[in-house]
Amino acid sequence: MDSPPIELGELVVEDGRIASLTAAKRSFPSDGIDFGDAILLPGLVNVHAHLDYTVMRGLLEDIPFFPWIRELNARKSALNQDDWVASATWGAAEAVAGGVTSIGDCSDSGAAMQGAIRLGLGGIVYQEVFGIDARLTVEAILTDLDKKVTALKASSQGTSVKVGISPHSPYTVRPDLMRALGTYALKNHLPLCIHAAESTAEAVLLRSGTGPIAEMFGRRSIAWNAPHSSSIEYLNSLGVLNEHTLLVHGIQVSSHDMDIMRASGSAMAHCPKSNAKLGNGVAPLELLSSSPPESKERILTSSVRIGLGSDSVASNNTMDMFEEMRFAVLMQRAARRSIEVLTAEQAVRMATLGGAEALEQESETGSLTPGKCANFCVVRLGGLQSSPAYNPYNALVYAAHASDVAATVIGGVMCYDANLSHQHTECFPDVDLSGLRIQLESAADQMRNWRP
Ligand SMILES: [Zn+2]
Predict the structure, then answer these.
(1) Distance from residue 105's CA to the centre of ligand 1 (Å)
(2) pLDDT tens, residue by residue, 108-131
(3) How far is 73 from 82, CA to CA, in rounded Å?
(4) Residue 345: other Cβ atoms inside 10 A
(5) How far is the CA of 179 from the centre of ligand 1 (A)?
(6) For 171-195, what is the mean pLDDT?
(7) How much distance in Å is there from the Cα of 198 to the middle of ligand 1?
(8) Domain annotation for the chain: domains and CATH numbers
(9) What is the CA(131)–ligand 1 centre distance, in A?
């Protein structure tokens, strides 16, 4: 990501960090690993996931966005904390097996922290906050949040996972609470993550106070004064947009909104597959360009930090960052009717260094730069669908799958080694995942049998 690919390369790891990246030397070191015909690339950074919801994979399909999110929230009551931990741990294993080394995760139960740590992931776990109903005071919500943040910080001690907070969205967090959470985050040096400008239901609620969300507010006697603005303008007016804020989705945005994002320094999580599957649309990435329209280097020159996110497998079904890269390029090209809007190389950048920048962790990860953490993954070539390969970026984006990952190394530790077994769950050298499947299936049964 900071120099051209090396055709026959050698990466040296010392004390968990990258010591050098050069052309391979003639003598093969006795403690070296030859990955053969493969691409060794920076560890993938998935900037937006919900590991907790792994148990909801494929549970709610073909339901319009707003009823979908309402039912997803209602069904959370079916599980206990052990179930959530099993679900999040399974999801973290899926992430690592797919080459992910850092994650930006929004977690309601906090289980994502345990899952991420158990599998060795780095990144940020954001404690989710909901509160649209004024019957619970801001003080009560902040007191509860403070307890959860303290617990998350304690469990993340000595790991490379940081703690953030996630006021869920403009339609699930009321304005006085959103403002208070922004202040709380600044005071406690916590990064923020907010779902924003995702659906048309959200857009019309903010613009005119109408639509399905407004109707639900009416039924539940929730007070709502439409700000008559876009989501980005609204969040900016509440003081929650700054360089430590990650905005997720960004579909319903204008060039003015993008100017606000640029000026505030906020980053963006692009979730192309979730956006498509839930029928929410295609994020207008071309608006992020700071170069003239005729330039081919449009996204690369964007001054907004942008990373790729899978979103939860409840909406995406799999956490496969290769598929996410592929969707990013193909959706942009299809929607803009142009091949110049996004290249494979730009997609790989979004999935690695761009993601690290969006999480403000680019000094530690995102590229194979000497001095950074030894976070990388190895993608096997030579399969039926991956041979021949002429260009590494094209091979990764247009042909590779998460299942082609042969190894994932985090901080110099081999966290996933596909050579260990034909069973994915047995390929984690330091983690015994046996027993997890039973708990996951029992949690899935409770999901299946849940009734309102
Ligand atoms: Zn999300």
Answers:
(1) 8
(2) 999 999 999 999 999 999 999 999
(3) 18
(4) 18
(5) 20
(6) 98
(7) 10
(8) 38-369 (3.20.20.140)
(9) 16
